[in-house]
Design brief:
The chain is an all-beta fold and about 425 residues long. It has one helix and 31 strands. Keywords: Photosynthesis, Photosystem II, Receptor, Signal.
C-alpha cells in the first residue's frame, strides 16, 4: 500500500508521525481454521479479500472475520460499505459483488475513534473511490479529516482549523464538500459553523457561523438555538439544514454556498411535538430529499415525512399513515423516490407505491420476522433500486448487529 502524508493545519501536529496507510489485514501463511478478529463479539461474519491478488489455487485467497457493524452506506446494487469501531480502531470494509466478499479499506489503527461513526455525520462517499472519514474532536484535540481517492488503498489527512465537533458532512463531488460543526453553548443551544472545501478536503474555509450568544439575530441567518438534524447541498450552490428546536422542526435554505441562510416554511399537520431525523437522498435527482419526522403525542408516535425536489427551497409535509405505541421501538423507514418506500414493522416489512398513502405488507418472508425477535431494533434501511436493499438490525441488550439483504424488493431477506 502506498504511504502519503500532507502538511497539516495547527491542530494536526498531534498526529505527526502517524502513518496513514490502509490497514488491510494480511492473509496468514497457513490456515487451518478461519481467523476471527473478535472471538467474543459474535458480530457479522464476512469474507474478506486479501490485500494482494493471490495466485490461482492459493488456499489463503480469502479469510473470514467477525465484526460488529454499526452503520453502512449502499452505493448501488453491487457496491457498498460497512464499518464499526473495535478497540478504538475503525474497521471499514467495502464490497463490489453485492456483499459476497469484502475488502478491508480501514485507515491506520493509530488514528483512534471513541464512538461509532454515522454516515452523513462522520463518513461521506461520493462513489466507491472517493471517501472521507471524520475523527471527531477528542479531549480538546484536533478534529481530523481522513480522505481517500483510491478506494481506501491510501489515506491523506487534514483538520478543521478550530477543531470543532462535527454534526454533518456532505460531498457533492470528489473535490467539493461541506462540514457543519458546532460549539456547545448550553444544553439546548449550539454555535453552528459551516466549512467548505474545493480541493477534496485538503483545506477548509469557514463560510458562515451563528453568533455564539444564543441570539436569533445572526449575520449568516443560522440560529444558535437548537441542534442540527441534517444538512445537504447540491452542485448548484443550493443547500438546506434541518434543526430540532423547542419540539419543532425548523428548516433553513441557502443559494450562495452557505454564506447566508433564510428560514423556509413547513407545515406538519397534527404534529404538536416533532423531531426530525437525518435526511435521505432520493434516487434519480441530486436535488431531491426527504426528512423522516417523528410526531409525538399522548397515544404514541406518528411517522411523517418532509419532501423536497429543489434542495430545500420548498417542502411538502406528508403523513405516512403509520404509528406506534409509546413503548414501541422507532422503526426503520426509507424512500427510494417520492412514491416508493419501505418500513419495518414488528412482524416484517411493508411497502408503499403511492408516497405513503397506502402500505402493503410483504408476506411470505420467513427470515426477517425470525431475526426481528432476536434483533428488534432496525438501525438502518436503504434501497439502491426497487429490488436491492440492505437492512441493519441490532439487539437491545448488547448492541450486537446483523446485516441483511433483499433482491426482490423486500419480500425475502438473507443474512449477508
Amino acid at each position: 500500500m502506498k504511504l502519503r502524508w500532507r502538511a497539516l493545519l495547527g491542530g494536526v501536529l498531534l498526529l505527526t508521525g502517524i502513518l496513514l496507510t490502509a490497514c488491510s489485514a494480511e492473509a496468514p501463511e497457513t490456515l487451518t481454521k478461519p481467523p476471527i478478529e473478535e472471538p467474543d463479539d459474535q458480530g457479522q461474519t464476512i469474507t474478506i479479500n486479501p490485500p494482494v491478488t493471490p495466485k490461482v489455487g492459493d488456499p489463503n485467497a480469502k479469510y473470514v472475520v467477525q465484526t460488529r457493524i454499526a452503520d453502512f452506506h449502499l452505493i448501488d446494487n453491487n457496491k457498498g460499505l460497512v464499518w464499526g469501531v473495535t478497540h478504538n480502531e475503525l474497521r471499514l470494509y467495502d464490497t463490489h459483488d453485492g456483499g459476497k466478499t469484502w475488502n478491508n479499506i480501514s485507515p491506520s489503527e493509530n488514528v483512534q475513534f471513541q464512538d461509532k461513526l454515522e454516515y452523513g455525520k462522520d463518513i461521506s462517499f461520493t462513489d466507491s473511490r472517493h471517501g472521507w472519514v471524520v475523527r471527531q474532536n477528542l479531549d480538546k484535540t484536533a478534529t481530523v479529516i481522513l480522505r481517500t481517492a483510491d478506494g481506501g488503498q491510501s489515506w491523506d489527512v487534514s483538520a478543521l482549523p478550530s477543531g470543532d465537533h462535527v454534526s454533518s458532512i456532505q460531498y457533492v463531488n470528489p473535490t467539493t464538500g461541506w462540514i457543519m460543526a458546532y460549539v456547545k453553548l448550553n444544553e439546548q443551544d449550539q454555535q453552528k459553523l459551516l466549512y467548505h472545501t474545493t480541493d477534496g478536503g485538503a483545506t477548509w474555509n469557514k463560510v458562515a457561523q451563528s453568533s455564539g450568544t444564543t441570539s436569533n439575530k445572526t449575520g449568516s441567518g443560522l440560529p444558535d438555538r437548537g441542534s442540527l438534524a441534517g444538512m445537504s447541498f447540491s452542485s448548484n450552490n443550493q443547500g438546506f439544514v434541518a434543526i430540532n428546536l423547542d419540539s419543532s422542526v425548523k428548516l433553513y435554505k441557502t443559494s450562495n454556498q452557505g454564506k447566508t441562510w433564510t428560514p423556509v416554511a413547513n407545515r406538519i399537520q397534527g404534529c404538536p411535538q416533532a423531531k426530525a431525523e437525518a435526511q435521505q437522498s432520493l434516487k434519480g435527482s441530486s436535488s431531491s430529499y426527504w426528512i423522516p419526522v417523528l410526531c409525538y403525542g399522548a397515544n404514541g408516535t406518528k411517522y411523517n415525512g418532509l419532501f423536497t425536489n429543489d434542495t430545500g427551497a420548498q417542502w411538502s409535509g406528508v403523513p405516512l399513515g403509520l404509528s406506534s405505541n409509546i413503548n414501541s421501538i422507532i422503526p426503520g423507514r426509507t424512500f427510494l423516490n417520492e412514491k416508493e418506500g419501505w418500513i419495518i414493522t414488528e412482524t416484517g416489512m411493508s411497502r408503499t407505491l403511492d408516497g405513503g398513502k397506502t402500505w402493503t405488507s410483504l408476506t411470505g418472508n420467513k427470515v426477517l420476522p425470525l431475526k426481528l425477535k432476536d434483533y428488534p431494533r432496525s438501525v438502518k434501511l436503504r434501497f439502491a433500486s426497487s429490488s436491492v436493499g440492505w437492512l441493519l438490525l441490532e439487539r437491545l441488550d448488547d448492541k450486537k448487529s446483523l446485516l441483511l439483504k433483499t433482491t426482490d424488493g423486500g419480500a425475502n431477506w438473507r443474512i449477508l
